[in-house]
Amino acid sequence: MAATPCATCPLRSQPLFKTNTAEEIEFIAGMRRGNLKYPAGAQILSQGDDDSDLYTLFSGWAFRFKELEDGRRQILNILMPGDFMGFHIAPQTGAPYGIECLTDVEVCVFPRRRLWDLFRNHPSLAYDITWLTAHEEGIVDDNLLSVGQRSGVERVATIVLAVYKRARQLDLVRDNRLDFPLTQSHIADMLGMSLIHTNRVLRRLHRDGVFTLARKKLQVHDTRALRSLAAWAEAPVPKRPLI
């Protein structure tokens, strides 16, 4: 099956994403080399890779992670449709993180060598990539704040609410229910908690009627309580660039 043309990409109709000019979309389409599909559990990018392409996540969920030599890992952030991936690679040290698929995914592929053309000829798109990178770093900063200062309940509430809100912006939520491919192990690796502690917190939040997480489905019962536990301050959602 042929890849979806950039001009008719269904993500561009989502209110979450900013509008590109016809010239920008034409450049993005010319820069795109094609699409690739990966199964759940596959790695799109391995830590240390030094010659990787750039990707936009077209469908499915993935996550960025860093791993120690003994296999222990820290999940940095969750990736959802529209996220731009692979920009951080340095020539001498390679990719500072890996990217693994949570579900079956499809990505749009952009050759890294074309990045210079983008920066030279389309400064607005270059700014968009800078914005996306800074936004991603901000998410990692928030996760670090959770690990360092929030309680276990606050940590879980914060990540569940962040994923829930992003999924709702992508129109993936129906009646406060969505597919939720993260396991307890993923949540523990993201929040610096043991599996036992993570399980206890999830059971407490279920018992308190905040949300239910079972069989890879998330059902939010009390969004007000979830926001309160996460100390979430509502703010206008900026339009996200889409490459």
UniProtKB/TrEMBL annotation:
* InterPro entries per UniProt: cNMP-bd_dom, cNMP-bd_dom_sf, Env_Response_Regulators, HTH_CRP, RmlC-like_jellyroll, WH-like_DNA-bd_sf, WH_DNA-bd_sf
Species this protein is from:
Inquilinus limosus
Q: Fetch the Gene3D superfamilies from UniProt.
A: Jelly Rolls (2.60.120.10), Winged helix-like DNA-binding domain superfamily/Winged helix DNA-binding domain (1.10.10.10)
Cite the PANTHER family for this sequence.
CRP FAMILY TRANSCRIPTIONAL REGULATORY PROTEIN, REGULATORY PROTEIN YEIL
Q: What GO cellular component is one of the record's annotations?
A: cytosol
Q: Which residues cross the membrane?
A: none
Q: What is this protein called?
A: Crp/Fnr family transcriptional regulator
Residues covered by the Cyclic nucleotide-binding domain = 38-86
Q: What residues does the HTH crp-type domain cover?
A: 150-224
Which GO MF terms does the UniProt record name? DNA binding; DNA-binding transcription factor activity
Keywords tagged on the record:
DNA-binding, Transcription, Transcription regulation
